[in-house]
């Protein structure tokens, strides 16, 4: 998994860091959530009957809170966009409800992508996110690429960050989107 953004230093410690994961169905939002949660030494892996599953196609919001390096972290998983049984507008209504779980508001939107192509579907998804939360949401957005084992050849894995940066530069629309996210 790789994340590209402009680095800004936060000078004050937040009482809690609130993160909302947004992306299309199957992009890896739930897997990313589990990766973040596992960063906590106190996190207990849910049993097999848990509603939090890596293979999950999240239908409803799911919120978890953990402590990572003395920092409270709230992670909210949202239903996937580009859903086969629901319109994106229906899904975004649930996503808006999810954002309320990060009250008083999220510090970061992690926009989860599992491909380097800036397809019409991805463009529509991005436009819907900005329309729903306002273009100002880009100031709080980070792009996270998941599924690197599927995206890269075995020989490329050791240089994943470098190769991902190159693939972003190859696609002007993707590059513009990533640069919009501060």
UniProtKB/TrEMBL annotation:
Keywords: GTP-binding, Nucleotide-binding
Pfam families: AIG1 (PF04548)
InterPro entries assigned to the protein according to its UniProt record, in alphabetical order: G_AIG1 (IPR006703), GIMA/IAN/Toc (IPR045058), P-loop_NTPase (IPR027417)
Record SUPFAM superfamilies: P-loop containing nucleoside triphosphate hydrolases
Keyword Nucleotide-binding: yes
Alphabetized GO MF terms: GTP binding
AIG1-type G domain sequence ranges: 14-182
Domain of life the protein comes from: Eukaryota
Membrane spanning residue stretches: none
Keyword Lyase: no
Family under the similarity heading: Belongs to the TRAFAC class TrmE-Era-EngA-EngB-Septin-like GTPase superfamily. AIG1/Toc34/Toc159-like paraseptin GTPase family. IAN subfamily.
Protein name per Swiss-Prot or TrEMBL: GTPase IMAP family member 9-like
Organism for this UniProt entry: Mastacembelus armatus (zig-zag eel)
């Amino acid at each position: 998994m790789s994340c590209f953004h402009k680095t800004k230093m936060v000078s004050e410690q937040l009482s809690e860091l609130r993160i909302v994961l947004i992306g299309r169905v199957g992009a890896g939002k739930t897997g990313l959530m589990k990766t973040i949660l596992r960063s906590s030494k106190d996190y207990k892996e849910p049993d097999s009957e848990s509603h939090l599953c890596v293979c999950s196609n999240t239908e409803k919001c799911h919120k978890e809170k953990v402590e990572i390096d003395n920092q409270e972290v709230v992670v909210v998983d949202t239903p996937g966009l580009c859903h086969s049984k629901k319109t994106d507008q229906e899904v975004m209504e649930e996503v808006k409800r999810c954002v309320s779980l990060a009250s008083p508001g999220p510090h970061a939107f992690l926009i989860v992508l599992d491909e380097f192509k800036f397809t019409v579907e991805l463009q529509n998804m991005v436009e819907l996110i900005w329309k729903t939360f306002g273009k100002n949401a880009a100031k709080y957005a980070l792009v996270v690429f998941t599924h690197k084992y599927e995206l890269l050849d075995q020989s490329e894995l050791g240089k994943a960050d470098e190769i991902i940066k190159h693939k972003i530069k190859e696609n002007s629309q993707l590059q513009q989107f990533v640069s919009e996210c501060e």
